[in-house]
Design goal:
Helix content is 39%, strand content 15%. The protein has 6 helices and 9 strands; from the N terminus they run βαβαβαβαβαβββαβ. α4 links the parallel β4 and β5. α1 crosses α6 and α3 runs parallel beside α4. The longest helix has 28 residues. It is globular and about 55 Å long.
Amino acid sequence: MTTKVALVTGAGRGIGRACALALDDIGFELVLTGRREAPLAELAGELSGDPLVVPTDVADSVAVDHLFAQIEQRFGRLDLLFNNAGLNIPSTEFGDIEEADWRALVDVNLTGAFLCARAAYRLMKRQSPAGGRIINNGSISAHVPRPGSAPYTASKHAITGLTRSIALDGRAHGINCGQIDIGNAASDMADAMTQGVPQADGRMAAEPVMAVDNVATAIRFMAELPPDVNVPFMTIMASGMPYIGRG
């Protein structure tokens, strides 16, 4: 049986790192990308295979094309993309959001996800056998916002539309696309949740978080599904997180 190949963006830390380890554990060859080479190289040393490490700014179309050219040259195919790279900005009331901050966030969270998904789609369509799976990292914010989160929330709502469109267009080519909407996971981006964050009623309150290994377990489940099965959307969160009933 041919070994399957997975690309994890934002692989250097947090959710991406945990998911790369989980995919390695079930036999995927790994391609690791992120902005900084050092954490990618450190992760590569913990994996069982011989991962391809390609530091990449996913918002740069030339860099993304270079990444996928290396994937095709090395492996000849791609079976799974976990479109995980993303960033956030500090909570900011809508009227005070700077255009530069908006553009920087949308460039990574939305345009970067589009560029990687498009390149993966093209490769999955022409490879033999054709097909594959794209998993986009959404968020609880793909459903409901936090106060002061317009750029992040808008980007994640847009990811939902991207996921639906890819899933529809990909049917003819055996390309599945799903989305994992992740609540507070114990990573750098979620550290503030344990200290207290703004709530819809104006309070500051700490929120429960879950271990990133729970996200990795979910990604592993999605990755191991047969090609004729898709999970369009999955939400995973700490059970006490204020999502059901937020506001």
